[in-house]
Amino acid sequence: MALDLDTDRIHRLLHDGARDKIYPGAVWAVGDSRGTRASGSTGVLDPERPDEPMRSDTVFDVASLTKILAVWASIGCLVEDGKLQLNAPLGDLWPEVSEHQLAQVTARHLLTHTAGVPLRANLKNLYGTDPQDVRDGVLGEALHRPPGEAVEYTDRAALILGYLAEHLSGQRLDALAAERVWRPLGMAQTCFGPLSPDAAARCAPTELDDGTGTHLKGTAHDFSARLLDGVCGIAGAFSVLDDLATFLRYLLDPNQPNASPGFSADWIKESLQIHTGELAPPRGLFWYPAPGTTPEADDVWVHYGFTGTGMWLSLRKDRWAALLTNKLYYSRDREPLTRVRNEFRSLAFA
Predict the structure, then answer these.
(1) Residues 227-265: tens digit of each pLDDT
(2) Cα 143 from chain centroid?
(3) Measuring CA to CA, which residue among 144, 125, 147, 145 is closest to residue 134?
(4) Contact 105/89 with Cβ under 8 angstroms?
(5) What does the longest C-alpha to C-alpha distance in the chain come to?
């Protein structure tokens, strides 16, 4: 049975966004626990090649969706394995931080952006370009406020959780995510960059790189990810629409056959609840209520990526949606895409 979707309005919305140069192109899908129910694409892959349309199999730099696809999912595996308790102070299970202020922070603090760690990554300026020096600097950095005091979105939360996942698993984050999440789900085109030349050729270009005079394509836009050889908790993953659909479908139906990542229905349900009490804005575990919605009335959760990506999920409505654009090709101005995202969400979950 098809979802009751006004696909004409979705097509028109996203077509107009490409026409107005909010992004060169976009791909989208909406589905439920049984699979994809509607999808489409609009615009072009690269304005410099106007005859090449955006396609459903275009590879995207998903930016902060890495926080969900790699970090949140891997942390869920470690919770499932009994290797991580969300309320345990990090100093009790991670000798590397035991003498630092981070020792009093918990994984739950990091997942809800209430840890009190600094708000900006600023890794190169503070710690240089050596990945080990960056790691040492981040884990040894002082908190800027007590844990649990305020909700403040910061890339450092995912970076630290990525390091924690590597410590507890004994694997680098890319290997851990691939082994425990992406391969078991059949997400064959999801990986950390830099991409191979063949994959990069299908990749949507992002921002103009001043150093080369060309748009980034197959290399992460996020500077922290590039500084850390392409692999970190902040960003760096690349994916395609079908892989995101597979991932989101699993979140709605963890009991489907032939899908066995290392995190369970309990992890999914716990994550899609408010964990920040009376603090604002409300947060689940990395997921958060979609703008313009409330958990009580709507139960639509979201995470975005800076490059122009986003995915939404509602257990109550048995529905998911994904919208992938390369809006950074034109501008860092968030407002035009914010309007498109909010209208897309309202149409997808009507």
Answers:
(1) 999 999 999 999 999 999 999 999 999 998 888 999 999
(2) 24
(3) 125
(4) yes
(5) 58
Q: Are 106 and 117 in contact (CB under 8 A)?
A: no
Place of tokens 């979609």: 290
User: At a CB cut-off of 8 Å and minimum separation 6, what does 181 contact?
Assistant: 69, 70, 73, 74, 77, 187, 261, 262, 263
Q: Are the C-beta atoms of residues 78 and 168 closer than 8 Å to each other? A: yes
H or E element in which residue 247 lies: helix 241-252
Cβ(123)–Cβ(139) under 8 Å?
Answer: no
Q: Contacts from 281-285 at CB under 8 Å and sequence distance 24+?
A: 281/151, 282/151, 283/112, 283/113, 283/114, 283/151, 284/112, 285/72, 285/108, 285/111, 285/112
Q: Residue 332 is encoded by which pair of tokens?
A: 């860092």
269: number of Cβ within 10 Å:
12
Tens-place pLDDT, residues 49-107: 999 999 999 999 999 999 999 999 999 999 999 999 999 999 999 999 999 999 999 99
State the Cα–Cα distance between residues 308 and 323, nearest whole angstrom.
8
Buried b (16+ CB within 10 A) or exposed e, 180-190: bbbebbebebb
What whole-number distance in Å separates Cα of residue 264 and Cα of residue 130?
36
Tokens of 122: 């600023």
- Which letter does DSSP use for residue 144 in this model? S
Nearest of 46, 8, 14, 13 to residue 27 by alpha carbon: 14
CA 283 to chain centroid, in Å, comes to 15
Q: How far, in Å, CA of 311 to CA of 62, rounded?
A: 10
Return the bridge partners of 44, or none.
53
pTM comes to 0.97
pLDDT digits 0-9 by tens, 304-320: 999 999 999 999 999 99
Q: How far apart are CA 161 and CA 75, in angstroms?
A: 8
